[in-house]
Design the sequence.
């Protein structure tokens, strides 16, 4: 008879492979199931313990989920299917679910079963087993705690998006990838690891660890992982760590490099001399180089320039860390917390209908943040908080955008043209340098206003004009070289003719 007080789901660890590693408690549970004529559901029967168990406990009734491995095309749903079936079965009667190794070590399906059981109000019990880690580490002569090894399930790694892998794996510490159970999965694992490791990186495939003469360690370059049939249901992949300067796709490497550059006494003399103030010009320069790459739609250049800009973030953070001001962790914390806080429609329960509502919520949240920081928001100017280091045309249009909300605006485009003509007349009448400076500023301010009325970014318009001028003048330089003449030899009519010729060519 089945014990009515038994947990709805009992999860039994079968050990790494040898029946001699099966715990006494695990065997007792399986014997009791056989005596009660109760079916035991194995995640897989492709495991060395299974056949000896059938001989040891002849009446043991076994069913497995191996069919799902053959049917599944989606790694991300495979274990979810198993967990669902286990919990569905447990709704009607107590279920014993048997898994290789220890149920809580490298067993994603068990974690899903436990989570689903909690939501359904099903009780669970874990019967421990020797995990695969001990015999694998024995073969590798590796203490995973001493080296801080990562342990990752192959299936989880396989269905990770490629751009997420570098955030989940730190290649500068040892990595163990468990349950690389066939060639197809080995291929997916190889592709994922390619985000962090060189194709030629030496890896070790540990097979049948703890199973006597069957155990082996096969070393090969990463790119060969799926070019053979070595991977099987008892395979664990060991990936040795790369050097601190070799993991070029990780932010941790950039952090190490910036620390190393400023380290006393063997860092870089120039980098050690830099301060927040001396680095300001480079932040500005790198920002504009990013903008230039965007304008040129050059994605390779953009990736490079974003890296240069990111270096400035890390350099400032390292300068601050050495001065005990803040660290790169504070930078991450501020931006992550801010993004979560200002996107309650994504990370909370706020609902929005369109992008306009997002902007309204964003501004309101910013206002609440300033109030919490002690700012007198009631007496704030609408022109506050515009960085004065911003290019002047951008500041002008930002000021104009803000005051429009108060009603301070021209009523028509014709009024803008009239005001611009008025400012042009005033600069014509200006006689002193100070007057000319002031009036030219007024002209530029009205040009920015005209841009707003025409829905044109004045800064972008001027950059585009600069690019156009550069291309045309460089073309004239090329024509002059073809004619074998120095630029200074051209008369005004010749310049005009040359300019017209280039305009026609570039039209």
Sequence:
């Amino acid at each position: 008879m089945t014990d009515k007080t038994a947990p709805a789901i009992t999860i039994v660890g079968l050990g790494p492979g040898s029946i001699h590693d099966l715990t006494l408690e695990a065997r007792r549970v399986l014997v009791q199931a056989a005596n009660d004529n109760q079916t035991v559901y194995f995640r897989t029967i492709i495991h060395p313990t299974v056949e000896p168990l059938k001989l040891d406990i002849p009446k043991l009734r076994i069913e497995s989920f191996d069919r799902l491995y053959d049917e599944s095309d989606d790694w991300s749903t495979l274990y979810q299917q198993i967990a669902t079936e286990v919990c569905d079965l447990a709704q009607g009667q107590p279920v014993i679910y048997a898994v290789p190794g220890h149920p809580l070590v490298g067993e994603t399906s068990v974690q899903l079963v436990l989570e689903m059981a909690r939501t359904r109000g099903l009780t669970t019990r874990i019967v421990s087993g020797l995990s695969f880690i001990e015999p694998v580490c024995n073969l590798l002569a590796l203490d995973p705690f001493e080296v801080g090894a990562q342990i990752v399930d192959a299936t989880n790694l396989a269905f990770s998006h490629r751009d997420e892998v570098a955030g989940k794996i730190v290649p500068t510490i040892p990595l163990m990838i468990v349950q690389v159970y066939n060639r197809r999965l080995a291929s997916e694992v190889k592709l994922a690891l390619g985000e962090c490791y060189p194709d030629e990186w030496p890896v070790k495939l540990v097979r049948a660890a703890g199973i006597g003469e069957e155990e082996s360690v096969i070393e090969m370059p990463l790119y060969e992982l799926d070019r053979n049939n070595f991977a099987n249901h008892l395979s664990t992949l060991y990936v040795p760590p790369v050097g601190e300067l070799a993991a070029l796709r990780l932010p941790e490497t950039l952090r190490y490099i910036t620390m190393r550059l400023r380290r006393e006494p063997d860092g870089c003399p120039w980098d050690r001399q830099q301060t927040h103030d001396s680095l300001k010009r480079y932040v500005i320069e790198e920002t504009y180089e990013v903008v230039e790459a965007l304008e040129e739609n050059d994605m390779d250049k953009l990736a490079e320039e974003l890296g240069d800009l990111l270096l400035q973030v890390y350099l400032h953070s390292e300068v601050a860390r050495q001065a005990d001001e803040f660290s790169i962790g504070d930078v991450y914390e501020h931006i992550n917390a801010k993004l979560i806080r200002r996107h309650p429609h994504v990370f909370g329960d706020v609902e929005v209908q369109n992008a306009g509502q997002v902007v309204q919520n964003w501004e309101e949240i910013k206002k609440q943040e300033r109030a919490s920081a002690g700012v007198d928001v009631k007496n704030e100017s609408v022109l506050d908080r515009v960085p004065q280091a911003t290019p002047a045309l951008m500041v002008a249009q930002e000021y104009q955008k803000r005051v429009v909300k108060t009603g301070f605006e021209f009523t028509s485009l014709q009024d803008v043209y009239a005001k611009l003509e008025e400012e042009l007349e005033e600069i014509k009448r200006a006689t002193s340098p100070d007057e000319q400076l002031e009036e030219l500023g007024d002209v530029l301010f009205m040009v920015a206003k005209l841009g707003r009325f025409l829905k044109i970014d004045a800064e972008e318009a001027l950059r585009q004009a600069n690019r156009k001028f550069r291309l045309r003048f460089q073309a004239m330089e090329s024509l002059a070289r073809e004619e074998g003449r120095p630029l200074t030899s051209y008369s005004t009519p010749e310049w005009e003719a040359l300019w017209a010729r280039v305009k026609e060519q570039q039209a």
Remarks:
- The first strand starts at residue 9 and ends at 13.
- The CA atoms of residues 285 and 309 lie 9 Å apart.
- The domain at 392-456 is CATH 1.10.287.1080 (Helix Hairpins).
